[in-house]
Amino acid sequence: MRLPLCLLLLVAIASGRAAETPLPEVIRASLTAAARQYEWMLAHLPADPAKPMPRTFEHGKLVTVATRDWTSGFFPGSLWYLFEATGDTKWRAAAEKFTAQLEPEQHNTRTHDVGFILYCSYGNGLRLTGNADYKPVLLNGAKSLTTRFNPTIGSLKSWDWSKVWEFPVIVDNMMNLEMLLWAGREQPGSPFREVAIRHADTTLAHHFRDDGSSFHVVDYSAADGRVKSRVTHQGIADASAWARGQAWGLYGFTVMYRETRDERYLAQARKIAAFIMNHPRLPADKVPYWDFDDPKIPNAPRDSSAAAIICSALLELRTYVPADEAVRYAAFAEAQLRSLASPAYLAETGTNGGFILKHATGNHPKNSEVDTPLNYGDYYFLEALLRARK
């Protein structure tokens, strides 16, 4: 039997948490704070047609990016979530404005992240408004994404820029499959669903270690599909567990189970969840260090974006597992939400460049976006809040 979240929360309260602020109040206050922040950001966002999307706030400056940037869909996606949270049409108008600027990316075949770019923006817009004009953009985006698929390998290529790797595939790419699965439902008989499943199966076969952790990058031979190397680009070492990579895997395989009901995907999601939740170097507040294997722990940066992704994924994963396991996932996700909603991570209005969450880590090895806000951290935090509210 699977218990609804309200009953799971009662279990948590009965276990000694009754003195805390009720979770619905934490959620309400967090959404209110998020709305205030984004109102402030919209009022202070410079008008730059070349770089319209806010990505981070680093070295005292707001960093905005072009629509081709892999993060460009998260800000309009967050605006859609604020519309969903409040019902206020001002958020719909803002979301529509920023979403429309991403229209050219439907034809972008040079990135595997067109799923991030379009499904977080146009996908949420379609879900919340039913605007039929959004469908062809998403379908064209799916077509663009499938041009990166190599049938010999069974994967979508992640990057074109490397002079070292022949056909690199990153675990992050699991997050772009949701748009393909949607497109497969919209166009039965199209290759979209098969491409998503084959990519997930290849990732399942080659990206994960016995303990449930994942490598960041797997490089393949385009000629015969063999694995050439398993390395990292954003973790501290090839054999380490880069925190956001674990989060992407957890979320991605949870989505794959939702869309296919393939028990292999559910088993992998549960295995990743166990790795994260039981890790001896996970901090007490459940917001992971940027890499679980950084030797400087506990004096290492956190990654609030990884926590937000994990939290949102667990709130969905709990609906697919037995009641005792669901209780554990719900309690863990609640602890993460409470941490992220606390002053330690939730920014005050008018600070943090207008972003919601503090203390994320983008690319630590390059000393880029370390201890900064990140637009995707905000996006998945808002998603987690809405999932918890439901």
TrEMBL record:
One of its GO terms (molecular function) is chondroitin hydrolase activity. GO terms for biological process: polysaccharide catabolic process. Gene3D superfamilies: 1.50.10.10. Substrate binds at D113, D172, T232, R244, W248. The active site is at D113 (nucleophile), D172 (proton donor). Residues 1-18 form the signal peptide. Transmembrane segments: none annotated. Keywords: Hydrolase, Signal. Belongs to the glycosyl hydrolase 88 family. This is Glucuronyl hydrolase.
